[in-house]
Amino acid sequence: MRTYLLPSTLRCVAAAGLTAALLCQTAMAQTVLVQNAWARATVPGQMASGAFMSLSSSTGSRLKSVSSPVAGVSQVHEMRMEGDIMKMKALENGLELPAGKTVELKPGGYHVMLMDLKLPLKKDTTIPLTLVFVDAKGVESKTELTVPVRTMVPMH
Hints:
Blueprint: H1 10-16, H2 18-22, E1 26-29, E2 32-40, E3 48-57, E4 61-67, E5 71-82, E6 85-90, E7 95-97, E8 102-105, E9 111-117, E10 126-135, E11 140-150
Parallel strand pairs: 2-11
Antiparallel strand pairs: 1-2, 2-3, 3-8, 3-9, 4-7, 4-10, 5-6, 5-9, 10-11
């Protein structure tokens, strides 16, 4: 697994030890913890894919937006079934992250949609993602990730 670090967390990592840090795939944006991030590999000609992760906010936040240089369009999406019909839409106001709760971005639910891909997402490569969060006070923060590309859900 890989650990994602922001400058504000470097002292915590040093205190905890580099070995322990390398055992978790984690990033922190102020009060938001990002874990187990990954993107789905594409097949030739596929112009869209998804990215998935777990988000936890200690104080309550919102995932406002996402971007990646590998996609012409990146959005926070919701997918749900209505009877036998799959409905998918962008969350115009972002995704709420209630304080103390983990919100799963996973296939078949909330996810990051990467559209108009500029290159194929190949298994065992990585892609950059930028997540923009807004906390309860309206303060924005960004988390820069390098996300592994996989063909299936990673085992925890």
